[in-house]
């Protein structure tokens, strides 16, 4: 098979990176109380990008107090239509600075520029636009006779995959409903959250309405344990999600958890295979597989298994791995060394269990954290690679003979976030979708997102919905 050689096409926009960033508390940039800082690097080059103030418990306390003051003094008193104007301003600023934010997201996290540019940033802006529109129409979301009341101060803890988008998923509905926010970005990807703080400042939001306090797990834990938040919205690992749920049980603090997944992606023999292969590739290799709803367990009807494997082998040979800032790149950098080690460890367990590994032929860059697009055939339900979230560009392929067997295998997981189905038979699509225990089921497509559509899981994938009208209820009392 021939592939075209492309000349390098690196993104020419360079973001305004500061040498140092403070904490954004009470509408102003502040140093950490104890002066502690940490560095964020570019995972594709391992180069240091900036030094960031690290928020400890004392800073968390300041941020929560600022958010409380911002809530009591300004935000809850503002007419809903005026709240909307501020949120629209944020949305417009994200759009106007879209190119710069995309480059920043790519440099800090390793996601390919074509994805940050065409998905992450536009979808983040879309969430602010969508929820700005709701701010003065909340009565219409309520049951008759009920008045929409905000919760108060919301703590938002987000992961390193889709950093700005995950912040937008939480901040946009929180603000629209009249709440104020303390955002804790992930330790490896704080830069777009800090750029968002700049936008919030330029949009002239009242002080304390949005606070951004970078740090690590201890910072997140301090925010949860502070006791001053009326709600915690968390996206991240199931393990940490469980800790937070235990900590807040019985406290009256509202909680939404968007956790891990091991989504079944089912391909029936009657599926349009060309499209299905593209869906499978998008499902697992999008953002290097750092996706909570990634289609990481492929269930293929046995009689098309060999053909699917042959086509997939051919297709991954055409994927381009390398510089995430190059617009030709399909597979960017793994977010961190720790994540690369985790992927590596799980892949070695797959080989030791007897599954067969197929990888895209490519040379890995000398510096940075990279892992080739990979899949395993001959996977058994009992293998770790069939059960645990790998959170990397690694697909596990299993087979089935009947739709009932497909459903049984698909549901044989402690998770329940997303699933996908490929078949040419409409009725089969419908009844399989209904039998799958997952919060989101995509039919003959995958990874579709829209701010008007709710997203979330159940069982070990968490609870609560983000997006759509349902996303409003998570930020309203009653
Ligand atoms: P993590 O759950 O530790 O981190 C997510 C966020 O929570 C970060 O902002 C982190 O600083 C914060 N955090 C960590 N410990 C906390 C605590 N005790 N209390 C409050 N906040 C805390 O995820 P991590 O370690 O970065 O990744 C580990 C694995 O988790 C990954 O390999 C992947 O399998 C999974 N993961 C899943 C995500 C999803 O969207 N489903 C997102 C990130 C990770
Ligand atoms: Mg980084």
Could you characterize what this model shows?
Helix content is 39%, strand content 17%. With 478 residues, it is of the alpha/beta class. The chain has two domains: 20-258 and 457-473, 3-Layer(aba) Sandwich (Aldehyde Dehydrogenase, Chain A, domain 1), CATH 3.40.605; 264-443, Aldehyde Dehydrogenase, Chain A, domain 2. A seven-stranded mixed sheet has the order 13-14-15-12-11-16-17, sandwiched between helices. Strands 8-7-6-9-10-18 form a six-stranded mixed sheet, with helices on both faces. Strands 1-5-4 form a three-stranded mixed sheet, with helices on one face. α1 crosses α7, α2 (80-96) runs antiparallel to α4 and α4 packs parallel to α5 (163-176). The protein is globular and about 65 Å long. 1,4-dihydronicotinamide adenine dinucleotide (NAI) is lined by residues 157-161, 184, 186-187, 216-217, 220-221, 224, 235-237, 240, 243-244, 259-260, 292, 339, 342, 389, 391.
């Amino acid at each position: 098979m021939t592939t075209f050689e492309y000349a390098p096409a690196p993104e020419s926009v360079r973001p305004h990176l500061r040498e140092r960033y403070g904490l954004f508390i009470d509408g102003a940039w502040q140093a950490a109380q104890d002066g502690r800082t940490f560095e964020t690097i570019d995972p594709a080059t391992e180069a240091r990008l900036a030094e960031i103030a690290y928020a400890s418990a004392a800073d968390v306390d300041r941020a929560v107090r600022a958010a409380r003051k911002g809530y009591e003094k300004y935000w809850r008193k503002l007419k809903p239509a005026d709240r909307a104007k501020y949120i629209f301003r944020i949305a417009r600023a994200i759009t106007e600075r879209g190119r710069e934010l995309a480059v920043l997201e790519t440099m800090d996290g390793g996601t390919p520029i074509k994805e940050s540019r065409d998905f992450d940033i536009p979808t983040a802006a879309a969430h602010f636009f969508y929820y700005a529109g709701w701010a003065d129409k909340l009565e219409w979301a309520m049951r008759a006779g009920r008045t929409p009341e905000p919760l108060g101060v919301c703590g938002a803890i987000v992961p390193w995959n889709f950093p700005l988008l995950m912040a937008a998923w939480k901040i946009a509905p929180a603000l629209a409903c009249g709440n104020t926010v303390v955002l804790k970005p992930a330790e490896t990807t704080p830069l777009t959250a800090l750029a968002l703080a700049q936008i919030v400042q330029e949009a002239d939001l009242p002080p304390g309405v949005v606070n951004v306090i970078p740090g690590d797990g201890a910072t997140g834990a301090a925010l949860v344990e502070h006791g001053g938040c009326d709600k915690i919205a968390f996206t991240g690992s199931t393990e940490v999600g469980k800790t937070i749920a235990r900590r807040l049980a019985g406290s009256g603090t509202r909680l939404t958890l968007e956790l891990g997944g091991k989504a079944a992606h089912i391909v029936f023999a009657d599926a349009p295979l060309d499209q299905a292969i593209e869906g499978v590739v998008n499902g697992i290799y999008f953002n290097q597989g750092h996706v909570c709803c990634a289609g990481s367990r492929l269930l293929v009807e046995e009689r098309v298994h060999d053909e699917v494997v042959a086509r997939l082998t051919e297709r991954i040979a055409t994927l381009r791995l390398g510089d995430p800032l190059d617009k030709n790149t399909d597979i960017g950098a793994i977010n961190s060394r720790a994540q690369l080690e985790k992927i590596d460890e799980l892949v070695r367990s797959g080989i030791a269990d007897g599954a067969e590994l197929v990888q895209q032929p490519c040379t890995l860059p000398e510096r940075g954290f990279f892992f080739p697009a990979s899949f395993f055939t001959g996977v058994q339900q009992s293998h770790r690679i069939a059960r645990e979230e790998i959170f990397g560009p690694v697909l596990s392929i299993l087979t089935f003979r009947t739709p009932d067997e497909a459903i049984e295998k698909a549901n044989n997981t402690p998770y329940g976030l997303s699933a996908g189905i490929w078949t040419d038979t409409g009725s089969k699509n419908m009844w399989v979708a209904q039998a799958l225990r997952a919060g989101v089921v995509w039919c003959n497509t995958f990874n579709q997102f829209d701010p008007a559509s709710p997203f979330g899981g159940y069982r070990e994938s968490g609870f609560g919905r983000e997006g759509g009208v349902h996303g409003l209820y998570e930020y309203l009392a009653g």
